[in-house]
């Protein structure tokens, strides 16, 4: 595949432990690369892969598809345009409808690297700044088997940004009502919040309640348009030879945040980014 | 009571068939008068009572309390201020949670005079113009006993205003989810709509649905603040010797609309106001 | 095209005045037919085309795409499943963001045939019954040029169904905030309503207001998924040799409703279906 | 006043530094006591006052009025009734529309004791458990003068409950759109959330946006009904000789949480309750 000169770019959706090597081989072959998150579970291995990309001068886009969701885009736009002023407080709620199979949990690298990594990227994307410190409160509340596998299933993670803003990431492996994907930013001049997506807008009123159907259940429904949009953006970047909208650097920073969150959870204290990645 | 010189004003909440006579006696005694709607079921008798008020030079306020509800006030303000431009289309939805007892239905004068009269007043209040023509589609869909008593329980009433705007009034004697009281106006530069009131804003998400508790069930809950506000306005009008905010004229016009709606229903054709009240 | 034996089915999206003839030719050639609404502006011509389809034994689907929109489907489902009981009152709000060009208005056959025809079909679809009587209140409030062309731009249309239910269709050629496409049904055991669709769910709070961006502006955005779904349904009906989900009969009934609405507007009185289409 | 045998109960709304002494004097005089929060800024002084109440055998109710707000009551009910299962994650958003005057800031005891204390009580009320650990991320983002006075104006506070649940309290001294008072609880079987209160439900649609007026601006509007309800509950407790619904113990626990939050902020680490109040 990598030898085929007809092929300009490759998309890596394989299991995480193969990402770094494929990136290195693809870069060596001069291919443009789209890679699902995370690049690797190890920062050192991630840095090697990124170095290979750098050396080859190829493009790399990481699959943080949520940046391409119209709702989060609008939140980012409200921040970027100054519509709500300087960000002060951020909430990212990100709950799955049900835990993944235990076989997956065991090889996933843990909730912070596997699931929260999307939220770490979202926090950086929404605020437009780097995080300096992370504090994690996490627990096993959904399924004891997850705890036995050494992972957690519920967390509140506090981020402190370089400019003073603070964020709270809320994760659960099980929201029985479906995929709960929201964000909100309070700024100096206003606030912006976005909510869940639904298959229909119908509201039913009966003698018992005023109700609507559940939100879209999981990412394949909720984020289908964002997957198309991120791939379109990658193709345009390759075609027009412009920078990819989500870079290897973004992938690296999200991983560092995930590693810091895990360390904070293990040590019961706030952890600074510099403890993970040096200066 | 009417002889007591310590008493400046009286509030008439007795049964409708006593309103006109009490108004006349109170007017003769020089009392300021607040009277529940309708003044009378007969236009002729209404006119006699209004003439007595006129002769005595006392104030009269009719109990169209909904004009004092914060939601409808805001709709009116959006029209009056020009925020939504010139009104084109109006919807008034006004549904009771359950029909009144049959004894009440039999003496009520019929749904148009008893229940829709509030909506006729609301239509005039929101648009700020007089109606020229009424068309009624009505039926007995809730309880056959209402039909046997010669009344209807469900209606769609179309109003045409002098300036060209059109309104639809939606009435039902039974919305099983509770008191449904909404209005909306489309204008040349925008629209305004208002919804139901709830005892709480809580939203419950479970594996079955996203739901909230039912709206406030009936007028004593839904409109309690408007009852206080209309009485306050009456007292201020008496104290400051200013015009009452809802006049005998308003009571008369709403009655004419109710009589026209009834005639339209009986004759299966649009009815002009001038057919009821001359020119 | 019609001679090509490789072609099983054709899709007619040409101007309305060509529909009937193409249907007849396609039917004669044994093609399965998808045709945009309306079949023709004349009932007689419509009936000829339908007779040709009948004779040829081919399938015909009419382009009432809104039946395939997830929101209206959910409203219909709430009625069909009995979730809200027997329908009593229906509201269909259908407002365009802006009038079409005057050249289009002049050949469109008028608002009732061109625009409201979708809402007539929707009313039949939601209630699942035939209409017996129509009353139209209509006016020129948006643009005098539309009136000069002999058309109207604003209407409230009252429908009475065979089973007693009543519906109000609200049409405007200009809702400045965008395409307003809503429906609601009150039934004996509850109500269902559906609202507009938005490009994003973000809510912005500032010192002035709590606000969101405008709804999707027009049908190409709002109904894109329904266009795909109706075509998929047509293809499946052809492939599986099953009845099409929207038939020539549906197209005919919607046209009759449009003609009745126009007659009601011209004559200022309710018009029964039997006046248009005999018995 | 305390000598008047006609007086059964007193309500203390004076400045915080007088609360403890008045409680002691009132208790000694055998009066039933309602006292605004906090009892005192010092835990030792609080304990002395509570001991006096204990000795005198009088009732004491603390003014955590939000427990009597219909919205928070419904959230609590959803937890207590098991409607949403066991609580996992809680969010309390509590933002003022604007900072208090600097003279007030200087004597308030700091944001945690003055403002967040309501949220600490709310967290305990909603979850129905005690907190074991607090971590505070706080900053001066609204007004540097607040920082110069030694206080903060923005915070995210993480609570860990004895049963495993975790909560995030979000505080800001300035939400420009008005008083932002929300809560949400994710449980094992569902979630409940509640939102802001508004003076009206009207929604305005124009060519720019779909919008509504700002929420009720501050506590005198937002919580007026809860103030009446808490006083009614106090009177009933005195009249019926039943326990008050918010006790001195509740006041003490909220203060301990505030002191722990302050310590966490100062020391940059999670603080356990036992560090403040021993065992």
Biggest sheet of chain A, in brief? 7 strands, mixed
User: Roughly how much helix do the residues of chain A carry, as a percent range?
Assistant: 40-55%
- Multimeric organization: homotetramer
Q: Give, in spatial order, the strands making up the sheet with the most strands of chain A.
A: 9-8-4-7-6-5-12
CATH class term of one domain in chain A? Alpha Beta
Summarize the structure in short:
Four copies of one chain form a homotetramer. With 279 residues, chain A is α/β, with parallel strands linked by helices.
Notes on the structure:
The structure is a homotetramer of 279-residue chains. With 279 residues, chain A is of the alpha/beta class. Chain A has a domain of 153 residues: Dihydrodipicolinate Reductase, domain 2. Chain A contains ten helices and twelve strands. In chain A, strands 9-8-4-7-6-5-12 form a seven-stranded mixed β-sheet. A three-stranded parallel β-sheet of chain A has the order 1-2-3, with helices on both faces. In chain A, α1 runs parallel beside α2, α2 packs antiparallel against α9 and α3 crosses α5. The longest helix of chain A has 20 residues. Chain A is globular. The interface between A and D is medium-sized, with 35 and 35 residues.
């Amino acid at each position: 595949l990598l030898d085929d000169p007809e092929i300009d770019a490759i998309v890596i959706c394989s299991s995480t432990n193969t990402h770094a090597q494929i990136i290195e081989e693809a870069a060596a072959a001069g291919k443009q690369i789209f890679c699902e998150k995370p690049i690797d579970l190890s920062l050192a291995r991630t840095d090697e892969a990124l170095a290979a990309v750098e050396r080859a001068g190829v493009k790399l886009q990481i699959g943080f598809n949520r940046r391409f969701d119209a709702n989060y885009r609008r939140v980012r736009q409200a921040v970027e345009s100054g519509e709500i002023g300087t960000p002060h407080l951020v909430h990212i709620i990100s709950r799955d409808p049900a835990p993944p199979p235990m076989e997956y949990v065991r090889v996933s690298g843990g909730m912070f690297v596997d699931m929260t990594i999307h939220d770490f990227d979202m926090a950086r994307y929404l605020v437009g700044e780097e995080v300096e410190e992370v504090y994690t409160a996490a627990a096993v509340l959904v399924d004891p088997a997850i705890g036995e596998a050494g992972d957690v299933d519920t967390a509140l993670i506090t981020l402190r940004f370089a400019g003073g803003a603070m964020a709270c990431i809320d994760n659960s492996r099980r929201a029985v009502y479906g995929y709960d994907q929201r964000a909100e930013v309070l700024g100096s001049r206003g606030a912006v919040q976005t909510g869940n997506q639904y298959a229909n807008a119908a509201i039913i009123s009966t003698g018992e309640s005023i109700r609507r159907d559940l939100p879209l259940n999981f990412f394949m429904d909720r984020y289908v348009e964002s997957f198309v949009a991120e791939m379109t953006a990658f193709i345009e970047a390759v075609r027009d030879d412009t920078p990819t909208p989500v870079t290897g650097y973004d992938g690296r920073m999200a991983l560092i945040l995930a590693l810091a969150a895990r360390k904070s959870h293990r040590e019961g204290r706030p952890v600074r980014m510099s403890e993970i990645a040096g200066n």
